Every structure is written in C-alpha cells, then in structure tokens.
Amino acid sequence: MRTFTFTKNGDAWYMASMNPNDQKNYEETNSLLEGSATILNLLAGTGTTITLNLDTEPFENAEVLELMQLCHPFLDGGYYYMRLFAGQAIDYKVWMCDVPRYAFGSIPDRIYLRKT
Predict the structure, then answer these.
(1) What CA–CA distance (Å, rounded) separates 91 from 110?
(2) Domain locations in the chain?
(3) Could you tell me which residues come within 8 angstroms of residue 23 by beta carbon, excluding any fewer than 6 positions away?
(4) Phi, psi (5° rounding) for residue 34?
(5) Residues 10, 17: Cα–Cα separation, whole Å
(6) What is the pTM of this model?
(7) Whole-number pLDDT of residue 26
C-alpha cells in the first residue's frame, strides 16, 4: 500500500508528496488533470488537502477504479471507471493521467483507494 498527499490550489490539485524545490516547473509537471482532479474533488469534498492510501489489491473500506482503456502510446494513463462511492452508484468515467504509473510503476487494471 502506498500513501500520497494531495493539495488543492484554486481549482488545481498537486501531489504534495513531491518537493517543489526538486523541479523547475513544479506546478506544470505535478498538476493533476482530468480524472485525477475529479476523483480528488469527490473524495476531499470542500477540503483542500487529502491523504489517500492506494493499492492494486483490495483492502478494507476501499473504493475501486477499474481500467476501461489503456491510452498508450498517444496519452499516458488510462480511462477508469468508478462504479460506486461510499456505497452509492456514481458511474464516473474518468481519464487518469500518469499518476497510476508514478504510484505503481504501471497502469494497473484496478486501483483501490481510501481517504486516510
């Protein structure tokens, strides 16, 4: 299981676990687009910081994102589907950028996640 913290600045989410001093264009290279931001908005509610446990194996009280389509070689990441959130049907279809590859070293078939 991996743990990551994300912060929101305005409408944009960033991986807080990456040091902004390590990269010249931190906000450009670490901003989370499309589906990642959609999922973070859902999980964080009105909050601006969220810490998530992520894994490719199921764990207690985890939500699940299921890979629908791998986007390589034209885009990094893939299209994922979140059927349920907190036990309620939401039917989210989202494109996840390269965050799964950063977290797991690949684009997994399923991502299990839970807010800590």
Answers:
(1) 15
(2) 2-115
(3) 29, 30
(4) 50, -120
(5) 18
(6) 0.81
(7) 41
Contact indicator for 5, 18 with CB cutoff of 8 Å:
no
Q: What is the pLDDT of residue 32?
A: 61
Q: How far apart are CA 41 and CA 36, in angstroms?
A: 9
Instruction: Give all strands (DSSP E) within 10-47, no chain letters.
Output: 12-15, 31-32
Tens place of pLDDT per residue across the chain (116 aa): 999 898 898 888 888 755 444 444 444 444 565 678 888 999 999 999 999 999 999 999 999 999 999 876 666 778 899 999 989 999 988 888 777 887 888 889 999 999 99
Q: What is residue 73's predicted lDDT score, i.e. its pLDDT?
A: 63
Rounded Cα distance, 109 and 65, in Å: 8
Cα–Cα dist 107/100, whole Å = 5
Tokens of 62: 């985890």
Neighbouring C-alpha atoms within 13 Å toward the C-beta of 115: 13
Chain-wide mean pLDDT for the chain? 82
